[in-house]
Design brief:
This protein is of the alpha/beta class. The strands form three sheets. It has a ten-stranded mixed beta sheet with strand order 7-6-5-4-8-1-9-11-2-12, sandwiched between helices. Among the domains are: 59 residues, no CATH class; 88 residues, 2-Layer Sandwich (Arylsulfatase, C-terminal domain), CATH 3.30.1120.10. Helix 5 packs parallel to helix 11. The structure holds calcium ion. The site of calcium ion (CA) has 6 residues, from loops.
Amino acid sequence: MLNRKCFLLIFAAVIYLTSSVHAAEKRPNILFIFTDDHASHSISAYGSKINKTPNLDRIANEGMLFKNCFCTNSICGPSRAVIQTGKYSHINGFLTNGNKFDGKQQTFPKLLKKSGYETAVIGKWHLGEHMPPQGYSYSEVLIGQGPYYNPPMLRDENGNGDRNRINYTGYTTDIITDLALEWLKNSRDEEKPFMLMYQHKAPHREWAPGPDYLHMYDDVEIPEPPHLFDDYETRGRAAHEQDMSIAKTMTPRDLKLTPPPYLNEEQLKVWNAAYEPKNEAFRKLNLKGDDLIRWKYQRYIKDYLRCIASVDDNIGRVLEYLDESGLAENTIVIYSSDQGFYLGDHGWFDKRFMYEESYRQPLLVRWPNVVKAGSRDEHLVSNVDFAETFLDIAGVAVPDDMQGQSLVPLLKGEKPKDWRKSHYYHYYEFQNDRRTAHMVRRHYGVRTDRYKLIHFYNVDEWELFDLEADPLEMTNIYSEPQYQTLVKELKAETIRLQEELKVPDDTGSVDAFPPSIKLKQNQPRRNQKQQPKKKQ
Ligand code: CA
């Protein structure tokens, strides 16, 4: 009798272990490839007129390209916090780059890890060094922005918070890829499915190219955007008063008229051999006015695209490894960037504004046997949907307090009728009387498939654009009589979204949300009717 009981117990245990290993095998791996400030209009799959990105295009050709993915707050740290939490900035508490990320809160990697995933983040973290990344089996991250060459990195090998600083020599984009491949090949627990966040610093300012690409585009002229010389007529103070123009804001270091300080002797020699002759030719020209702006644009965009060339090559290395190792079949590959960027559009570099070029994020997803190769999706989607999507892919229940929607139905080619018809945006990094980076005024706004309404609430100025008639957003039609009904509707929609997303009431005041104020999580909006939670 005892023997029979023992046998049954062992038999049950074997069945349980076999089935859980089997279940773990079936759950797909998630490879999230992420860059910093990579605008969609510099990806050939998105129709770039200025460069080619064959490896990113490969993901698009073998998967789905999202044409309308938008961030909720177009700046580095806040976008990353939205992705970690699946919540808007006013809920996750990370409103500006000056905030500290509260790593103790619920994040999707924690939930995936708890459900049996091996989780890792390698590369740029940018949510503060005050605490190691939480919810990861392994992390190795740049310190702050991190330099383009010879980066020191912080490694937490067991995900227990003990970190070692390691100083690397070489080009950061290559190093981050080497580390990601090393983790995939030798460090992860192969019994478990994995979720790897492989995150580049590039192509963030100051756009320092790798040694192989210092001469790329030397003999070509990159086409200028049609609104390089925008004069902001019809738009408000925010566009006029920003400090992010190619004409006025770029420094000698941005323009490579002085070399970056982090190069070693050998790297500096190679760098100077590439840039000094070009700089000497520039000095001789003694350019002024528009000609000088045109030269600065060429120097900026070539360096930006050179950085992307290295990113694209390295993504190619990772895709090849997935093929060789047989991992490709059961690994979902996702490509995105924390937000877009101005590539001379409106005369600018940088991001922050809700205008299309920096508001739109690239989003490419390859999922063998699920996503139809070469498919395109036009639904309004957002970085606030990423956490929900990853959990859904892994079969983990999406917590009710997350504010986005899983993209899995869209990836399967479905067209849900109740999908969001409008998207809410809110940028915070501006304080009156204080100099803040790039001086872009706080604003919130709403975008539909055709229109965009923006409120710069510090100065109470509104802008409305018809994206179909005016895709470059050159003409503010807010005051035109024929649009007043539409203005009313979009204002009502903005209020509806603010209520649904629990945006606190003081949002519209001049000094709302100074970074020192800690927001109470899920604070109810004043006068808000208590309604059951609806998904956006
Ligand atoms: Ca960024």
